[in-house]
Every structure is written in structure tokens, then in C-alpha cells.
Design a protein that fits this description.
There is one protein chain. By secondary structure, the protein is an alpha/beta fold. It has 3 domains: 103 residues, Carbamate kinase, CATH 3.40.1160.10; 90 residues, 3-Layer(aba) Sandwich (Carbamate kinase), CATH 3.40.1160; 55 residues. It is built from 7 helices and 12 strands. A 5-stranded mixed β-sheet has the order 5-7-8-6-9. A 3-stranded antiparallel β-sheet has the order 10-12-11, covered by helices on one side. The protein has a two-stranded parallel sheet with strand order 1-2. A hairpin with an 8-residue loop joins β7 and β8. The relative contact order is 0.12.
Length: 273
């Protein structure tokens, strides 16, 4: 039988992620350049800032990790308190100055990074919803606005899928107890939601999260041998390698099931040698 595998392309996932990050940032760079110039023409004086010179990360492309000490030093040098800056969200750069991205909701995370490094009084994020609701209004009727949420509750909601905020955004703010305001740009005078050092949620109502397009992977042993810590560690190493975010796990003596997000469509990537 003829072997056709030699005709199939070899997909190097790391190279793909690198190229993705070098290309995807141009939209942010171009749009902020246009906005900065427009505001200057309207006599709202501002300075355009390339965020890649401020936020330094590792080279874990498409979901880079911030180098906090280097980032703090670069932001302190680049930012003056008396100046209005227009900059980009979502982007950073590694030690070789290649562009990196910060993952889902990276623009909100960028705001939190700057707030943390500059000891900001508060951060306001503008959305197309009234604030943080107890359910996604696209799927749940009569979703209720949460007036205040503690950092702990907000991080739990965000981690399990509340798309309006991201757990990465909250972590640096919580460390310095910087309040986060989530408000609507459609109704900017409304109060929105405040995340701060409080307890629980107000009003105290149940919260619902619907996650779609999940992948369920079930494994079991053919010889009825146990699935032990070494096996589970190997599975999670592979999930981490391909950037699969795990949501739910279940295991028994001879089976293991995991539900994860396929955020980058890596599930359909195959490598042939």
C-alpha cells in the first residue's frame, strides 16, 4: 500500500502561535494610531504609546505570562502622570521584542497591569452590557445586575466562564485592592458593577454560566489497570502543551474524563512524521 503520509504537512504548533501573535496585533496598533491622531486634531492632546515597550512577557505565544518586575520598570519610565495616553490592549513583547498576546480579554488585563504598576485609584472597563449580570443576557431572560461583587466571587465567576470579566484582570487589582468598575458605554451615567474588597454579591442572587463548544475526552484502561497520579500528570502535561483550559474533571479507578475549552481549535491539529 502506498504511504501518503509524506504528502501531508507537518504542523508545528509553536511556530503557528508565534506567527499568529506577530500578525494579530496590527489591528490594535493601527486603530489606536488613528484614534490618537483624531483626538489631537480635536484638541484633546494625547501621546500614542506602544504597549509592547511597556508590558514584557515570556514567549508563551497567544497566552503570554507577564514579567511583572520588568513591566513595572518599563511603565514607570514611559508614563507620566500629567499626560493622556492612547495605547493598545492585548499586546506585549518578549525578551527578544517579538510581539506576544495575553489571551482572552487581554485588553482588560492590560488595564489592570497598568493600574497595578501605577498604583491607580480605580479601573473602569466599558462594555455593551449594564455591568456584571447574574447570567448571560443572550441566553437568560431577566438577568439581574450585580451592584457589587467581592474579588473572590468575581474571580470564581470569571474563571468558570462569566465572559464580561477575566480572572487575570482581577488578580493584580485584588493584590493592591484597586476597585474595578464595569460600566456600559451605551449608558455611561449608570452605576454599573463595582468589584472591590467586600463580601459576597449584592444583590444575593444565584448566578448561572452556560459554556458552549466544550470538548469531552474520556479515557479508560483496556487491561483494567488503575489510572494513578502519574497517568493523570501525563494527561495534564499534554493539555497544558496544547493550551487546553480544563473546566471539569472526573476520575475513577480505571477511567478519567475531562471537559475543556478548545479555544484555539488545536483539537483539529494533527502532526504527521
Amino acid at each position: 500500500m502506498k504511504n501518503y503520509s509524506s504528502f501531508l504537512p507537518v504542523i508545528n504548533l509553536r511556530d503557528y502561535n508565534f506567527v499568529y501573535d506577530q500578525v494579530i496585533g496590527f489591528g490594535e496598533l493601527l486603530s489606536t494610531t488613528i484614534i490618537s491622531q483624531y483626538l489631537n486634531e480635536k484638541h484633546l492632546k494625547n501621546s500614542w504609546l506602544d504597549v509592547r515597550k511597556c508590558i514584557k512577557t515570556d514567549n508563551y505565544y497567544r497566552r503570554a505570562n507577564v514579567d511583572w518586575e520588568a513591566t513595572r520598570m518599563h511603565i514607570a519610565k514611559a508614563v507620566e502622570a500629567s499626560t493622556l495616553y492612547i495605547t493598545q490592549g492585548f499586546l506585549g513583547s518578549d525578551s527578544n521584542n517579538f510581539t506576544t498576546t495575553l489571551g482572552r480579554e487581554g485588553s482588560d488585563y492590560t488595564a489592570a497591569i497598568f493600574a497595578y504598576c501605577l498604583n491607580a485609584e480605580s479601573v473602569t472597563i466599558w462594555k455593551d452590557v449594564p455591568g456584571v449580570l447574574n447570567g448571560d443576557p443572550r441566553h437568560f431572560n431577566n438577568a439581574k445586575l450585580l451592584n457589587t461583587i467581592s474579588y473572590t466571587e468575581a474571580i470564581e465567576l470569571a474563571f468558570y466562564g462569566a465572559s464580561v470579566i477575566h480572572p487575570k484582570t482581577l488578580q493584580p487589582l485584588q493584590r493592591k485592592e484597586i476597585p474595578l468598575h464595569v460600566k456600559s458605554f451605551l449608558n455611561p451615567e449608570d452605576k454599573g458593577t463595582t468589584v472591590n474588597k467586600t463580601k459576597g454579591i449584592e444583590p444575593n442572587v444565584p448566578c448561572f454560566i452556560l459554556k458552549q463548544n466544550q470538548v469531552l475526552l474520556s479515557l479508560s484502561t483496556l487491561d483494567f489497570s488503575y489510572i494513578v497520579e502519574e497517568n493523570i500528570s501525563e494527561i495534564f502535561t499534554l493539555l497544558a502543551l496544547y493550551k487546553m483550559k480544563v473546566d471539569v474533571i472526573q476520575n475513577s479507578a480505571i477511567s478519567f474524563s475531562v471537559c475543556f475549552e478548545n479555544a484555539y481549535n488545536n483539537w483539529t491539529h494533527y502532526c504527521y512524521t
